[in-house]
Structure formats: C-alpha cells, structure tokens
Protein 1
Amino acid sequence: MPEVIFHIRWPDGTEERCYSPSTIIHDHLTAGHSYPLRDFVARARAGLNAASDRVAARYGFACSSAMDQLARIEATAKRHRPDGPPVVCLSLS
C-alpha cells in the first residue's frame, strides 16, 4: 500500500512531517493550500481515518500509525487558537 508523507506548517510557523499509510489523504489535503485550524483537523481526521480503513480492508486490522499521527495532529492543534493563522499543507509525496 503506497504511503504518503505530508508536510505542514502550523500557525506558529513550526513545520511537521506527517504520515499517511494511503494515498487517500490526497482526497482531503492539497499541497500549497491553507486551511483554518478546525478545517485542517477535520480534513486530517477524515483522511487518516479513511487511510486506516483502507489498511483494515486489506490486512484485517486498522493502522495504528495513522491513528498515532491523528492523535499528534489533534494534540498540537489544541495549542493553537482556532481563529488564528491557518495551517498550510506544504507538500504531499
């Protein structure tokens, strides 16, 4: 199953390398786009859950790496103001 690494920039300027076990994340995030914080978290949640579901359909178990990534995104998002600067998806590869 092809994995995707996506790089994001948080509202405070820090950058993070994120992991998806499936290319389905491309259906939820676009390189070069900025997303309000809540929208980004919702898109990441939908994309990573869908990716984990694809792993489960193929291998019979959910992807713990996708769920760990989602937990990190959600935890980091809580440290930022929802009405602050957007999250930028820098790249998907």
Note: Residues 31 and 64 are 24 Å apart (CA to CA).
Protein 2
Amino acid sequence: MDTTHPAAVAALTAMSAVGAGDRDAWLACYAPDAVLHDPVGGSPLDPRDAGLRGRAALERFWELTVASNEVRFEVTAVHPAGEEAAVVASVSVRFPTGACAGYDGVFVYRIDGDGRIVSLRAYWDLDSVLSALGG
C-alpha cells in the first residue's frame, strides 16, 4: 500500500483529521475551491449531486456530518495514480444518540500542484446507512 504518494498523503491526512475531530486540520487539506461529492449520487446536503464547492460548503459539511459524531476510517487499500488516490476503507460512525452506522467505501481524492485536495468523490451506499439508522 503506497502511502507516500502526494495524493495518498493528502487523503490519509484528511481522513486522520476527521478521526481526530480536528476541523481546522481537515479544512487545511483542501484547496479553497475544492468540490466534495460525499457520497457520489447526492445526499440531503447535495440533492442535485452538484458537489459541495468551496470553504463555506466544506465548513457546513463538517458541522452537519462530522462535528458531533465519532467517525473512524479503517483503510484497507490505497491506490495512487497521477494526481489522484483511491482509498478503500470501512467507516464507522457513532452519533450523539448512541446509534452507530458503518459502511465500506471507495474515496477518490484529487490534489493540486500544492498537494491540497481539489476534489473528493466518495462512493458508498447512503440508503443503507439511512436504513440502519431508521431513516
């Protein structure tokens, strides 16, 4: 597993910041005009699947999906190529209510010349997570 490629470093740093609950470190991983598709296909935060673009959108995503939850990534593979890295991981989320959800996903990060993330495309099944939570 190549974790030294610049795109892999950016991806794993961002995932680590999420796991640590470190909003500022997570935001620092992203370019100012980054686009987040998490998940690809749309979500309540991105119903048209246009992607969440820019710092304000990323801050809102953090506040609504990460800030009050415990999120953990178990990375099983990293596949870097060019300016991208595809990270295969199992994700577990514990909500403030005590409810838990888990899913497997593929997370494709693209970086710019400065090593900052310009795009994240996360492939995972939102419907199965919502069903597990009774929604």
Note: The longest strand covers residues 70-81.
Protein 3
Amino acid sequence: MSIPTDVASLQIMAEVYKKKNLQDILEKTVNSLVEQVPYIHWAGIYFYDNASTVKLMAASDKEDDLTWESNSELKFPIKTSDQDNLGVLVVRTREAIAFDVTDVSTLETIAEAIGELGFAN
C-alpha cells in the first residue's frame, strides 16, 4: 500500500526543497496525498495560532473534512528544527484498514520536512 504514498511524497518533497511559498507547499501536500493515494480521502494541515487554538491552513476539501465518515485517521506533528510544535498534518480514510507502517514513516517524514524546511525560509 505504500507506493502511492511514496509517489505523493516525492512530489511534496520536491516542492519543499525548491523552497516554494509555504502556502503553496501546504496546498501541494494535501492535494498530492488525496490525488495520488487512493485510500487517503481527506488531508489537512492545521497550525497553532496560540496554545489553545488551531487554524486550518490547507485542506483537500474545506467543505467536507470527513470527521464523521472516516474509519481511520492519522495525525503527524509539524515541528521546527528546534522541536517547537507548529501544527499537525491529518489524513483520513473511509476504509477500515488502509494504512501500513511505511505510510506512517513516509507521512512522518513529510510533516518533519514541512516544519524544518518550510519554516527555514
């Protein structure tokens, strides 16, 4: 199941390493995950405004986040290179068993790159 996630990861990492605009990177991330990975039905990136509130910065579908329809959800922290929490990458699926270990490690790498490289510009 991890090949589609790897393909999406390559597209996303290319944007990150090109040091594109942060919002472009975020939008490319959520859209690539949903377009390339058949079992990811929604992806979103939230950033913390302060300690108690979060703001949706990018989503594959802003109208329908599948909160009530998803069977599985994974969340990955987005941190700076100093390990400050910036936000979270969330992926959701309607499938009962969709994600495997390699999906998790690839998505962790994407979240890490967004935090470290996306905020290094």
Note: The two ends are 33 Å apart (CA to CA).
Protein 4
Amino acid sequence: MDKVIISVLCVLFFIAGCSNNQDDMNAIKKDGYDDARESAWHFVKEKGWDDRAEENWQSANVTKTIADNNYEFLDNDYEEKELLLISFKDKENVVLGTPSILIAPDTNKVIGYMPSE
C-alpha cells in the first residue's frame, strides 16, 4: 500500500512540475516579443555565436534600454534611442558569452549588439 501511495505522489509531483514549465513558456510567449527574440536569434546564428548560447531562444530575456556608446551599432540612427535588448542564456562552461542584441521595437530589426566579455 505504501508503494502505491509513493508512486501516486511521484506522478503528481512530475505532473505539477511539467505544468509549471508549460506555464513559464506560456508566460514567455505572451509578452509580445517573440518576433524580436527570433530576429535576434537569427542574427546570433548568422554571426556564428549560437554555439555559445542555449538553443531555447524563445526564453531569451528582453529588456528596454537606451542605446549608448557601449554597443556596436549596425545602424547609428538609433543611438540614444530606446531599444529592446535581447539576452540569451549561455551554455555552461563557455569562455566567451553570447553578445546581447539590440532590436528596434517597431520593426524587430537588429540595430547592434553588446560584445561579450
């Protein structure tokens, strides 16, 4: 009888854990920045930096920032403007992290990046 109760509890914990992960992914998708994340991920892959980042690009962190001279610009018209900054989670034990990518919020165009250290 104890084994049955333990088995049922294990299954319930597993189901609860999976539903939390699904809720997290749903929350990520609902923030409206999926196109910006995807654009940034394509740029990262184009530059060959994707070997540094986890491939779960949908969970990349998106923040708003004022672009200053700390960034490498592809389009200088956006300097000192509010842009989206997309940061990908790095793989474990990478020496050089994945650069954060600047995206224009109105077009989802890559504007620049912050070199990683």
Note: The longest helix spans residues 2-29.
